[in-house]
Amino acid sequence: MIVVKLGGSLAKAWTLQGWLAALARGKGRVVVVSGGGAFADAVREQQDRLHFSDRAAHRMAILAMEQYALALADLGPMTACATELDMRDALWRGETPVWLPSALALADAEIPESWDVTSDSLSAWLARRLGAGRLILVKSTAAPRPLDPEALAARGLVDRLFPSFLVGAKLALDWVGPGEEDRLADLLTH
Fold first, then answer.
1. Amino acid 76: pLDDT
2. Residue 127's pLDDT is what?
3. What is 25-94 written as a DSSP string?
4. 184 near 175, Cβ under 8 Å?
5. pLDDT of the residue at 77
6. C-alpha to C-alpha distance for 187 and 178, rounded to whole angstroms
7. CA-to-CA distance for 28 and 14, rounded, in angstroms?
8. pTM of the complete model
9. How far apart are CA 60 and CA 62, in angstroms?
10. How far is Cα of residue 75 from the mean position of the Cα atoms in its chain?
């Protein structure tokens, strides 16, 4: 099983259809975790305006991920799934599940409720929970090689707590950046 985190910023870059076509190559093997995209940007903007807590913002950002996941499910086509069982059943049927994170992520008191945890960390959390062998981060920016989670966090390419979500994980980490749709398709089929 492979978990692919599809960055929300890809929708802004007008490249989303190419990424969705690449993801279609991994049917029955891939679970998609969406970023928050414009939906999460709205949460940030409103937190600046209304001054609600990071706890509220975290919960709203998870719902933003869920909104983007519903859009991806419609465009993909993918199957929107909230539970592990739903995801495993969709994979068994040869479908591509896209995770609706609110039920599982908000139920885990160990996940810090702040902007230090974004869809990057949540994708690592889900990959570990599902026992995936690989996590692929699809982003609108390139990353330095070799991939070092600490360095990625220090550069702001992933959230601050992302490295801690990988500690002890037996998980291959890949990064796919702009123009690498074919590389993603290759990673999903090999």
1. 84
2. 97
3. TTTTTEEEEE--HHHHHHHHHHHHHH---HHHHHHHHHHHHHHHHHHHHHHTT-EEE-SHHHHHHHHHTT
4. no
5. 86
6. 15
7. 26
8. 0.95
9. 5
10. 16
Q: Which residues of the chain carry a pLDDT beneath 70? A: none
Q: Give φ, ψ of 3 to 5 degrees.
A: -105, 130
Tell me the residue type at 11: A
Closest CA to 69 of 56, 59, 82: 82
Q: 161 is written with which tokens?
A: 């707590």
CA-CA distance, 114 to 35, in Å (whole number)?
15
Start-to-end CA span in the chain (Å): 12
pLDDT, one tens digit per residue, over 97-113 is: 999 999 999 999 999 99
**Domains of the chain, start order:** 2-189 (3.40.1160.10)
3-state class of 103 per DSSP? helix
